[in-house]
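batch_manifest entry 22 of 60
target: ADP-ribosyl-[dinitrogen reductase] hydrolase
source organism: Halorubrum xinjiangense
requested by: lab member K.T.
priority: normal
notes from requester: please return tokens only, no post-processing; we will run our own comparison against the previous entry in this batch. if the run fails, retry once and flag.
--- input ---
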Amino acid sequence: MDTDRARGVLCGIACGDALGRPVEFVSASEIRAEHGQLDEMIGHGTWNQPAGTITDDTEQALCIARSLVEQHEFDPADIAERFVAWYDSNPFDIGRMTMKSLSRLKHGDEWDEAGQHVWETSPEGQNAGNGSVMRCAPLAIPYATDRERLVEVSRQSSQITHADPRCTYGCAVLNLTVAGLLEGTDTPLQDALDSVGSDAPGELVTALQPLARGDSLDTLETSGYVVHSLQTALHDGLFAENAEEAIVTAVNRGGDTDTIGAIAGAVAGARFGASQLPDRWLSAIDEVGELESLATQLVEAE
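--- output ---
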């Protein structure tokens, strides 16, 4: 596997996350009015943090990557523990379903119980957020060549906090796509959809099938709903001419900018490699050194 592309996955998550962080929940027209096109790491804004600050997207991806490297395998109970330790650090940004699930884990639920309980007690419209797809891409590196196992670990990693099938299969489709890009396949998203087949929720497949055919979509949503986030991020990650364009396009759509940026960044990073991410972005993000080191170790674990 190309180590540059693997590093691109983890660094791409961080770039999209940190670029989008200051304008999270801001509309596209408001971003345009204030920044023209936002393509530089800026400070303050939403969450009032310094330029280059990552959020829960990258922080949870780091939890997964560190666990994979240290445990030498996918260990969902270990990942759940790391999520709880991160939750205890009082992060400034955390999603509602994640917070509820991690609270239950902290109070004794097993890794495969908490998310299930939160999902079952959440009304439609609040039960299928993008909080697990935003963090799952590190899994695609060590399991890139074992598609069946990649589906299994992707779904279980989601289940810790997000048990809705749209979320669990959303993680599987994203990771299969990233794995295909890492392996240099011609039709990574179509291959991913073929791999999950009729097991995946119809709504997810229907949203992604046009992209797999190569059709660009005019109307893309930027809500925190997992199907919207995946459709938009995969569109921008797969159709852009370069990595910077993919992330800038995703973030400037407004809405859930850090997460859609992070997912698009994982895809674009796998397509183009870390060497194609702008140096001015990477130098602004404190965690890049660790992300690159973890990615290299995950390639060696493959």
